[in-house]
Amino acid sequence: MRIVDATLFALQIPFVEAFAHSVRSRSYSDSIVVRLRAEDGTVGYGEAVARPYVTGETVDGCLQFMERTLWPAVQATDYLRWTGQNPIAWLASLALPADADSLATPGVVAWHGARCGFELALVDCLLKSAGVSLGDLLPPRHPVTYSGVITASSVEGAVKHARRFKQFGLPHVKVKITGEADRERLAAIRAVVGPQVSLRVDGNGAYSVESAIATCEALAEFQIDSAEQMISRGHPQDLATVQANSTIPQMADESLITLADAEALIAARACKSFNLRLSKCGGLGPTLAIAELAQATGIQVQVGCQVGETAILSAAGRHLAAYLPEISFCEGSYGSLLLREDLSRRPIHFGHQGLAKPLKGPGLGVEIQDALLEKYAQQIISLTTKAV
Ligand SMILES: [Mg+2]
Asked: How far, in Å, is the centroid of ligand 1 from the Cα of 256?
């Protein structure tokens, strides 16, 4: 099956409310949606989220990489339809050039957002063409329960969010921390949500090794289930030092982008869990490879998300989360709880207690509204197969 054209939509969808962590605050979604059309007319959608402080990708850099490197590779390939073969092997057959080492660009760890955008669009398109759901390849093993995430706003703001999540019955809450008023914030949130709710923190690399250890010690009394990326991406041994000196299990996020990162973190005994995010890890194929390694070595996995992702990444994340044998937590599917408008015809966000149903429709299982892509696009790039 040949892909005959691609359209890249660089979006700006306003948020209902700004979202902040220790690195930056954002007030709109800046996803890039990739729309591919196959020779039989089937259309598929994928999504890339460029995060300079995670993979090193910018929106402009991603668009260029897609146009110059990914699109020529995609249009030169005759793709295999999925006909019941091993799903991991089939996903791997969608080989897309985005390896960190072979395509190193200064400042870019890996073109994983860009790769994810094209990979998801291919998966959606090829599976729709065959009338198959991603849930047929990756059958759901359990229901998915989403966490609430409290942005790094004032303590009063955090309390307001905690109350809302309590009313919503969310059993898991993640709190963004910055090194300012961390104890006060966690004490106030714990008081609101009560002892039953699982709390975890995310430092987004704001701490030194010493301050990470001290902060974990100071927060331990609030029963914190994990501390995510307290220190910046660096040598795994540094994270191992934090882990060895903390009673709170450490989770790697920005430190975990490639399979090589996963191997180095495991070898250093740097953490107890990984945050897997599709756009950060390069799409379904590479993320499943990291999950498999984690499972084999006793590392727990969380299925994370990108703040501001649309229904496309949320749908793919839901399939992944429901399929993986065991996940500690899941994030995402905020949809119109965060975006002024989400792209899917039917809402995809989770419901009471954070629960969400498996998606069963063809491809990723969401129906994307082209009119909204055009409404929120800051830039549209059309790529077509050149006549030979
Ligand atoms: Mg994180």
From this structure: 10
